[in-house]
Amino acid sequence: MNFDFQQYPYPSQRTTVIANRGMVATSQPLAAQAGLDILKKGGNAIDAAIATAATLTVVEPTSNGIGSDAFALVWTKGELHGLNGSGPAPKSISIEAIKERGQEQMPTHGFIPVTVPGAPSAWAELSKRFGKLPLKEVLQPAIDYAENGYPLTPILGKYWGYAYKRYKQILTDDEFQHWFETFAPSGRAPKVGEIWKSAGHGATLREIAETNGESFYRGELAEKIDAFSKKYNGFLTKEDLAAYKAEWVQPIKVNYRGYDVWEIPPNGQGLVALLALNITSGFEFPAKDTLDTYHKQIEAMKLAYTDGKAYITDPKDMPITVEELLSEEYGQSRRNEIGDEAIDPNPYQPPRGGTVYLATADDEGNMVSFIQSNYMGFGSGLVVPGTGISLQNRGHDFSLNPEQPNALKPGKKTYHTIIPGFLTKGNEAVGPFGVMGGYMQPQGHMQVVMNTIDFHLNPQAALDAPRWQWVGDKKVQVEHSFPNHIAQALVRKGHQIEVTVDTGGFGRGQIIWRDPETGVLMGGTESRTDGSIAAW
């Protein structure tokens, strides 16, 4: 990739970071520095990714935790590897069992939506296959922050405060009290600049480190999770934990104007970003900030997301294959539906015949795109007593309609929102990228890729550029910095435009690109959060 990017005048206090020995980009400065420290101790980009991810469970618990799921794309020795660290539904759960408890849809909080957490297994698998340093050494920075504490950063404090106020109102049952003991030990949310620590969190990370993750699935930590679940009539058991291991998968891709854009295959929603790019690849975009560009981007994403929500689930239950959805026939068919006016899309009819984000790089050529998340902030609202393990609520996305592809079944993986991205050209890595944030993620991936490839923006400018987000029907949210004249013109095309002042819902991204000739790294970090790049 040519590093002579355009400098687009989007407002930002940040500049693109350039280095050559190593780089870690993520949403929290202490976590980025933890990853860099591991690089300087002789670790590689994989070790740095694990260290950063584990530290993020401590220094950004509003987005992820030890009980999270995780996905990774790892470039090493000229090859890209995918890791799916999402867990299945418990073996004892079923649609009938949920409805017997008076639920007509999957709840947000409590034990019902908790699936097997995959993050600790993902760390262990990455370390075992590609790491250079022992997991015990790699997790030490996270352990230190958990045991000794750290001061809250501004965006972290903001969302922690939001969660506390909300949880205080809605999480009143006894099973949720351990969340308040862990994350509001003074009877309130910690404030910006205040020191927070969690001895239980530190002890859990230490046990994971010393057992290479085994304790979480087949040891003392598994016993504690099982006992907590049994006490509150949960479906998750130690047998579910013991049966789990993160899964190595073959990444999927589309070629977009000579670049291969890679994502993790379903059950992740990375397919949505590829569908949208497959559709837009048939158009020409001579300029970024034009009505035609935004209209076609939005329409392509609407079509892609409609199909993603209709079909993405555990691969064994998908009614159409990934290959069919990424075909030129699919792209052309959906492209033909884009006209001059905003549409209400229906799912594609197949021919009869389917969180936190971080990027790391080292001077050996290794690069990692890694994402890890609970869901909806702190997840289920459950914390395993004395452990600091906040449990995700990924099962919330299951449908209780047995006719739907993503219908709840025992042992099934649900549609999953968190997605890491990666860009290559020919046989060379360009680098990792990602935009975390629920259903914004594939929309952010599409926008970042187009900002880079079509509009030649440097990594920081590609992230800083005003974002839009399709939220359903003809409704599109845009940031307050979005060009007003284009927003008005989109309204005239039938789009329902809502200008949003709070940028928190538009995702948080990171990028690291590598010059294949010199090995020089160029990184951008998210200006909408406490984003940071540590480099040397």
From TrEMBL:
InterPro entries: GGT-like_enzyme, GGT_ssub_C, Ntn_hydrolases_N. SUPFAM superfamilies: N-terminal nucleophile aminohydrolases (Ntn hydrolases). GO terms for molecular function: transferase activity. Keywords: Transferase. The keyword Protein transport does not apply. The keyword Cell wall biogenesis/degradation does not apply. PANTHER family: GAMMA-GLUTAMYLTRANSPEPTIDASE (AFU_ORTHOLOGUE AFUA_4G13580). This is Gamma-glutamyltransferase family protein.
